[in-house]
Amino acid sequence: MNQKYCAACSGHKECAVFKIIQKDRRARRLEHTEIKLVVTDLDDTLLSPEKEISPEAVSLIRQLNEDGIRFTFITGRPAYAIERFAGRVKITAPIVSCNGAVIFESDTGRVLYDIPMQIEALEPVLNRAVEKGLTALVYAGDTEYALSETEWTRVRKSAGRELPITSFDWILKSGRPVYKVNIMADGKAEAFESLTGQICELRDRYCIALYGNSGCEIVDRNVNKKEGLLRLCEVCGIDIKNVLAVGDNANDQEMLQAAGIGAVVANGTYETKEYADYICEASYTSGVVEAIHKFADRRRS
User: Contact 194/180 with Cβ under 8 angstroms?
Assistant: First the structure.
């Protein structure tokens, strides 16, 4: 039986280089896909390491609007942490936040769709996280709460950020809808690693995105960016095959696979690149600009 080999490494057809070559061929075919909506992750994708959006990206996103192509964010961030970036670029479709748990109008803030989560089963792991000095955050209602004071919370508070500290019991009794829970190592990788087994045991109840030993994001089991994108497409009346999605990490993977074209910036994780149709040569904001030019810039056609 004939096997396909990669000349670069003389390896089997399953080798990484072979897969990248195949993806590149598919990407060239996809250049003819009509893009009607561009969605991008924020952190480590559209945003630079300094949490900025380049003037070139701002201009290109404005051009998308002029060309009749809608643009929005699809991010793990809650609404309050998106505001300044939404004010920087031309948003022309509802924003998907909390990894798909909430979809809201960017101009009015009106929630169009949401899936809150039940958090009772998370109490033991969150208590252990607090005991180990990790930062545990719970986004409930329209507020993000910390379960203890840590160096991470002190730095944010000193910068002027409101970050109330409360107990798990208070959040439960408040009756506020909870949309996302974060556990962040913030330099305590070993402490977080000791929790990963307990966290993974909860996968049958929650959708969990693990970021190595740096932390995790937890949402309802029916929530992920793919489902958020499908709901967004329904709201906008756009077929998902006409969507360009750009991301970089674990919580983007299903979305990238589902979109008409899924692109990963060069700084994205190796595992996430496995889900992409196109791997950008450039990183961060420049990678998003590259993907838009390649697949959604009608003026270059």
Answer: no
Helix and strand element counts for the chain (H, E):
12, 13
Residue-wise pLDDT tens digits, 83-101: 999 999 999 999 999 999 9
Determine the Cα–Cα distance for residues 106 and 96; give it in Å rounded to an integer: 10
- Domains of the chain, CATH where assigned: 34-114+224-300 (3.40.50.1000), 120-220 (3.30.1240.10)
196-250: pLDDT as tens digits: 999 999 999 999 999 989 999 999 999 999 999 999 999 999 999 999 999 999 9
> Quick one: DSSP state of residue 123?
H
* Three-class HEC string of 7-75: CCCCECCCCHHHHHHHHHHHHHHHCCCCCCEEEECHHHHHCCCCCCCCHHHHHHHHHHHHCCCEEEEEC
Cβ atoms of 280 and 245 closer than 8 Å: no
